Amino acid sequence: MKKHKGKLIFIFLLLVSAAFVFPVFIVLMNSFKSKLYITSEPFKFPTAETFAGIFNYTEGLAKTGYFTAFATSVFVTVLSVGAIVVFTSMTAWYLTRVKNKFTKFCYYAFVFSMVVPFQMVMFTTVKTANVLSLDNPLGLVILYLGFGSGLSVFMFSGFVKSIPKEIEEAAMIDGCGPIRTFFLVVFPLMKPTTITVAILNAMWIWNDYLLPYLVIGSDYKTIPIAIQYLRGGYGSIDMGAMMAMLVLSIIPIVIFYLLCQKHIIKGVVAGAVKG
Predict the structure, then answer these.
(1) Rounded to whole angstroms, what are the CA distances from 93 to 136, 176, 222, 272?
(2) What CATH number labels 54-270?
(3) CB 274 within 8 A of CB 161
(4) Alpha-carbon gap, residue 159 to 118, rounded angstroms
(5) CB under 8 Å, gap of 24 or more: what pairs does 187-194 form?
(6) Domain extents in the chain
(7) Closest by alpha carbon to 222, among 74, 123, 58?
(8) What angle do CA 146, 87, 90 make, to 5 degrees?
(9) Phi, psi (rounded to 5 degrees) for 237
(10) In degrees, to the nearest 5, what angle opens at C-alpha 245 toward C-alphas 240 and 249?
């Protein structure tokens, strides 16, 4: 009975996986078809008549300025994820180890920020960014740090609760101050949660369209914004070039995910520890 149950679960999960992979496969397949056939025959394999080779890719690269947008996306994503990981892990450690009303209030403020929809603060965020001259890639990193702090602090706090205080006390007895104790002792122990936080935030920031569009507009195009500019007048879209650019935008983040995915479950479980 258990054997059959295991097989049924495996088949179900296989079907769910196929449902998630199927749209990506359709995008990949259509990226090699002539744009005239993508809309009329979206689910058919390319034939001798519909096959466009790498024309869509070369056309997309020429129209979007892909490499410039790629560099901007890498800059924003790497700095944002790095800032989120470093600052939120330090914050979570402090909020967990220092018990008073202020730290308790701050912790629940971070948790509450997770349930606030971006649309509620969208206009005030853009106005604040303009007033403080944050409407540039570096300013965008600061905004992402703010929006990514809620979930990250929550996950890091859960993991810190599982770290014995005796390890930190031993480091302090050996002469380490708070900063050295954190970076030499605590932070290395956070590796599973750190990788999980990095993956989740990298996937979100890399694919985000709305915040970069509202804050930096077309002055510094990230990849999602560059792809959006393939839309022409009166709603016309170069579907071939768009499919090709979507494939190129997916590849880096998929590679990053595959390299780190084995740490996700470990990090999520570790971050679920209750104190």
Answers:
(1) 31, 16, 33, 15
(2) 1.10.3720.10
(3) yes
(4) 27
(5) 187/89, 189/163, 190/89, 190/156, 190/159, 190/160, 191/263, 192/159, 192/263, 192/266, 192/267, 192/270, 193/155, 193/156, 193/158, 193/159, 193/267, 193/270, 193/271, 194/85, 194/89, 194/267
(6) 54-270
(7) 74
(8) 130
(9) -135, 135
(10) 150
Predicted confidence at residue 275, as pLDDT, reads: 44
Q: Do 205 and 76 form a contact (C-beta atoms < 8 A)?
A: yes
pLDDT given at position 145: 94
Q: Which two tokens stand for residue 198?
A: 């990095």
Which of the 8 DSSP states describes residue 183? I
Residue-level pLDDT at 162: 84
The predicted pLDDT at position 235 comes to: 60
What is the pLDDT at residue 264? Answer: 66
- Give the angle subtended at the CA of 178 by the CAs of 175 and 179, to the nearest 5°: 105
Mean pLDDT for each 10-residue chunk of the chain (275 residues)?
Answer: 74 89 88 82 81 85 87 94 95 92 92 86 88 90 93 91 86 85 89 88 91 84 86 70 89 84 62 47
- Decide if 153 contacts 112 (C-beta within 8 A): no
Joined tokens for residue 82: 């790095």
CA distance 2 to 76: 48
Burial class (CB in 10 A: 0-12, 13-18, 19+), 142: middle
Which pLDDT score, from 0 to 100, does residue 268 have? 57
Quote the CA–CA distance of 216 and 203 in Å, as a whole number. 20
Closest by CA to 212, choosing from 196, 230, 224, is 224
Cα–Cα nearest to 210, from 197, 224, 190, 220: 224
Q: Which residues contact 228 (CB under 8 A, 6 or more apart)?
A: 209, 213
C-alpha 51/C-alpha 100 separation (Å) is 66
Candidates 125, 82, 123, 79; CA nearest to 222 is: 79
CA torsion angle 146 147 148 151 (round to 10): 110
